[in-house]
Fold each of these.
Amino acid sequence: MTSLPEKTEKKLGLVIDLDTCVGCHACVISCKGWNTENYGAPLSDQRPYGTDPMGTFLNRVHSYEVQPDSGQAQTVHFPKSCLHCEDAPCVTVCPTGASYKRSEDGIVLVNETDCIGCGLCAWACPYGARELDQAEGVMKKCTLCVDRIYNENLPEVDREPACVRTCPAGARHFGDFADPESNVSKLTAERGGMDLMPELGTKPVNKYLPPRPKDAWDGEEDILAPFLTPVAEEPSGFLGWLDKQLSRLPGDGKTDS
Amino acid sequence: MHPAPSVIAFTTLSGLGFGLLAWLGIDATPPTGWTAFAFFAIAFALSVGGLISSTFHLGRPERAWKAFSQWRTSWLSREGVCAVAALVVMGLYAAALVFAGAHFALLGWLGAALSLGTVYTTSMIYAQLKTIPRWNTPLTCVLYLAYAITGGALLSGRVEIALVLLLVSAGLQILWWMQGDGAFSGRGTTMETATGLGSIGTVRSAAPPHTAPNYLVREFIHIIGRKHAQKLRVISIALMAVLPILLLLLPFSHMAAAVAVVSHIAGVAVSRWLFFAEAEHTVGLYYGAR
């Protein structure tokens, strides 16, 4: 049914640390790798080796430059996938009931055998979290790796979303936001986790941790700096003699002047 | 938004067809026999043709029947249910008029209500979307209903009413454009709220996640179609309202009426092109575009 559950027992989701993310796109690749051969239809590519290559991805990494009022601009890498919103507008617009939000853990999923590929859920999502697969004609989205997190055939360490498992920087965290003692709840509280486009009222479950303030160098020099050996401007000793002899030879007039 | 030809054709033609059905439904002295057959054939061709063309943009058209199930929550589902109900009721009403010469007024009024209900549910599919501020207004519903009623009046030969409605529709269209032009900035959604980085400074897209356009970019960021927006607005109003009004004011001839109808449909289609091409989706912000 496309009506949203009034309350979900768990609120599973991700915390994405914009301070730590290095923009390596490893989460994008591991997501595509896992999800193209597991739950649902494969994630197709169009013209992968041609001009204008295109494909279905459930996770994308943008890079932004943020310019404060004064001082240096800052680069922020910004992974973006489904936020598993509490008030998910993509679910209620679905005409067939293919899109649904699970009452047990809050994961938003698409039942691909019911999806007619009308695209209205992608229109309703403010974040661009849903992509219509061009080969299969059905809507694809992040499943929070529902086929990993409960999968008892996997070692326990692997029972988390592929993007979290692979992140080499530790910028992605998975957990239950309904539990105030969970790792994700604590991180969100400590670091001021934020919602994307809160003004649209979607109540995203996933939270983003803002970049920490950067160090500044304004005139601060170490007190020992004056005692450091200055870098030689003119060569001395053997190098100085060599420099003098070489300068006497003709041929480097062009570069010298 | 990508202006898909199938959706433009659907909303233009089916709006017109259901508008005509509504007028035929409330007519106190409706046509009977072959005249009725001609009117209803045009109305059903437009409304059914429009509905069929709307399935062309589906990824899985063979499953379209499943869309009737979620009428409790989904406006798209409600549209499907309403459209089928309107076509069935008006089909019975039309059959009685064509074959038996019998006029069941109550059935006609019910069919007219369902026909306009279909147009309303279509408009709500767009008007409900907070992601597209230009559409997200009750005025979108008013505009769709106005176009349907105007086109229906024109097609059913109600000249005096059509003259007034053409003026009303043109006014509503201009009002909708004026309101829509400030809708996105009025909503306050920016790259800064989209990324949450506004507390640090102004945000600029430094590198997109992919080198070539993907589904999101193709579907939601359609800047090329807006290039001649102002000229197209003038062309739309001229074809949709000005030319039909002038033709209707001339001494009546079937030729002039036919040209007025064709001109009106072309004008509505241009307006529908702009409806999509000028619509800016919030996802564009992540790409530093709108």
Note: Chain B has one domain: 5-287.
Amino acid sequence: MANMVDPKIFESLQAKIDEDQHVRDDIRTILQSLERQGRSVQSILSRAHSTPAAHLQPALDAAKEAIAEEVTSIGKLSEATVGSPYYKYNGLWMRDVQNVVFAILFCGWLGGMGEEGIVAEPGKLLTIEEVGQILNVPVNLKDQDAFHITIEEYLQSLITLIEELARLAINSVTLGDYQRPLHISHFVKDLHAGFQILNLKNDSLRRRSDSIKYNVKKIEDIVYDLSLRNLVPKAGGAL
Amino acid sequence: MPGVKRSRDGAEKESEGDASPFMPMFETFRDELDQHHDRRERIIKTSRDVTAASKKIIFALQRVRTLKSNIPAKIASENQQRATTMHVQLAAIATDLTGINVWRYQRQISGGIQEYMEAVTFDHYLKHQTLMTFPEASATLPDGIELTSDDYMLGIFDLVGELMRFAITTMATTGSLPGSSAEVNGDVTARDILMDMRELRMSFQALDTASCGGTGLGRDVEKKMEVMKTCVEKVEAAVYGMIIRGRERPKGWVPDLTDDRQAPLESY
């Protein structure tokens, strides 16, 4: 008499579990180097807090080179997940990818990241499309199941950028740069206005975007301190 | 995307108006996120409806007393209606769950699909006394609703719980363990539900799920494995009780079941 369980059922379940493990192992290996590269990029970029804007170019060039290594890792990640459902595994790399996107955004804001089709200028916000071009991967895919940068990841990285700029505003004053806090203030307020029109649900994006207003206030306080002491440079005046 | 670049002279633009140059970009994001949340909510709602209907089907199937035979007409027709409703509900969200979105909303739909799997595999077991295969199970879902092997597997774990209830209630009401015998090549072999449950348990235990730890499947497997083992042991204990005290057992007596869903049919 036939058995209750056709052995093929569990054989194929096991095969699927093993295949899944294989993909996960590949992803984890790549993420290990991506994490290491990420730390190195962050440490280069944090020089911005102690270097006057005028002397930042070497750091930006170094950051761009270091980011290029991250781009290679992202390429490997994209290759390793060909044929695997994107949303089955994206939780594994979301944090690391957000770090890479943040590094690109911050470096871009500082005036780095120029390449063909992307003009480098200080105070610039790189769009998700430009980030995708730099990373050489698609963005916001809807019809095709492949590796890409999601809107959520981009927005998360923007929030990190705002936090970093709040810190930079303080440190700019310490460096004697009274102009930059004003630019930061304006830039962050514009981003804040953007975030306010999003209908966020009770998810991680919502929780983190709640922190934007504190950073806006922190930056406003700096601008207030400067203007109170007549330290705000006249618009159009010498930098 | 136009209007998203800012330059150093940004401060001067303030006099021109307060509109953020990033607005067009954020408006696009808002529309995308709204669509995403709407899809997500539709899926969650359907998942709940499917779960509720599947539970009712399972409930009705627990009134069956025989194995490897057709489901009694009344129960079968009730369940057919429920199944039809579920299919309509699932088919309605099929477009939300295609392509890249199959896994995007996996966590939202998973609960409903698992309960559904429990219902269809239980129905299949009662009729055929075999475990429904993955392709068979997948074919019972409407077009466009993809079955993941994770949901199939987790549904089977829960099936063991239903088999336990079915075994024990049947023993309590008929005084014997449900089973069947069949003739193959002239040999008559009998197979009862406990043998089937042990076979399932062995198959699950042989499965190497160590790699799933912590992610997706891994969250549930460990817990479900323990519950599944307990279910088999409960039936083993009940069969032991039936053999050792069988003749003294008053009709309608039910062994202690902590998770008992169904009252005994009759007692004196």
Note: Chain A touches chain B through 59 residues (CB under 8 Å).
